Fold:
Amino acid sequence: MIPDESAKAIFSHCENILQNYWENNLLGPSQFYRGITTNLWKDSYTANCERHMLIFQTNNVIPEYCFNCYKILVEPRDVLELFKLMIIFNGIQLPNNNTRKCMVETRAEISGTYKGLVYSQNLEEAKGMLLSLREIISKEISPEITISLKRGCTEYAISYPEYTEFDDENIPTMQYRPEWRDYEKAADENGLAEHCPPILVDNINPKGYTLGDAKVMLNWLKYAATIEDVSYLKIASKPISKLKGLVTRS
Structure:
């Protein structure tokens, strides 16, 4: 079991270098990444996820590539558990150095608060990781944390709820619609992906924690204070003021 003191110790090393960011009451970067970046995914497109989301936002169609994207969703109950999940994600050895992140949910239209995500490019690998992560997280944090199998981006399921539905054997029920291929072809021919910034690194696996990670941790604590999650006081050395304009859904 990861002790509470481990989370506090990690953040305490960051506090001195964060003095200039402490009083800012606007939420900054809030996602902690580890693993390979999407430009190394199998048969990856130029601009990767940005290309796929632009096609969806422009045409309300889900790209074919995204029908083979699966993720394990971990839902910590408070920010202290989120820090412990970060510790696991920082050190875990996954089959393909799978892309993973911890985050706070800032999209008002999407439910939830604290989340961890591990991505896979095929269903069988995702199922295997689901079982292993349940075992690890149950042992190291709590067996009460919800861990589930999802598909692709949450935004897709808002327009197409069936996209993320599975049958009793964890087989997805929605298939790609062939008529959508024309929209994808037109978008690529018109250079839609050229508007997306390139990914400049192949993986995010630093030794220890970076200044960027420290800023993310501080923003998590600000988020926690704003939603009155007092577990943040087990990590921070002092109370934190609430953020301005943060809208969340439980």
